[in-house]
Hints:
The complex is a heterodimer.
Chain A: E1 4-7, E2 10-13, E3 19-25, E4 31-37, E5 43-49, E6 56-57, E7 68-72, E8 75-80, E9 89-96, E10 104-105, E11 109-113
Parallel strand pairs in A: 2-11
Antiparallel strand pairs in A: 1-3, 3-8, 4-5, 4-9, 5-6, 7-8, 9-10, 9-11
Chain B: E1 5-7, E2 10-14, E3 19-24, E4 31-37, E5 44-49, E6 55-58, E7 61-65, E8 71-76, E9 85-92, E10 100-102, E11 106-111
Parallel strand pairs in B: 2-11
Antiparallel strand pairs in B: 1-3, 3-8, 4-5, 4-9, 6-7, 7-8, 9-10, 9-11
Amino acid sequence: SAVISQxxxxxxxxxxxxxxxxxxxxxxxxxxxxxxxxPGQSLTLIAxxxxxxxxxxxxxxxxxxxxxxxxxxTFSTLTVxxxxxxxxxxxxxxxxxxVRETQYxxxxxxxxxx
Amino acid sequence: xxLLEQSPQFLSIQExxxxxxxxxxxxxxxxLQWYRQEPGEGPVLLVTVVTGGEVKKLKRLTFQFGDAxxxxxxxxxAAQPGDTGLYLCAGESSGTxxxxxxxxxxxxxxxx
Lengths: 114, 112
């Protein structure tokens, strides 16, 4: 299984600012995903991070609000832009080494927006 | 939109009791996964079921995939405090390139 780290692990931010979350994997992976988990709730897929091209966003999520980069097969970033208190959530990246295989999750980034 | 409803939402039981968590949908999934998430961590995969009617056992945990591949259940025998956590089912549909739809979650607390 892949070992996944996320930075920062947690942060408290002021509304109107932006935060970039990093996801680093210890091996090359085919698929990388970003999820949001609001307090006490389940996971919602934000987007699939595609290497070398624009991310594929799910309904309700847009690139201007959640720009994503994936420069190589082991690293991705998610930016939460122009934050509001409603963006307070846990943001998780996940990876799968082969398409349609098991997804492994990072530890998450806990974001609180004041 | 595919929905996976889990029941119950919350469950508080004593050590040694048995419990079953259900995951239901009106959609067919090519596979279904069960995860457990503990506070401060990401979800950890417990099992993947692929074939309709499949039953998998993982120590005290028994997972079943419905014959029509629309529902699943997780049964825990003789629960222990270490089983405490958020249990999530997640379905993968054919043609969605590994995208998972997560269930609503079941929060389990096992007390001594």
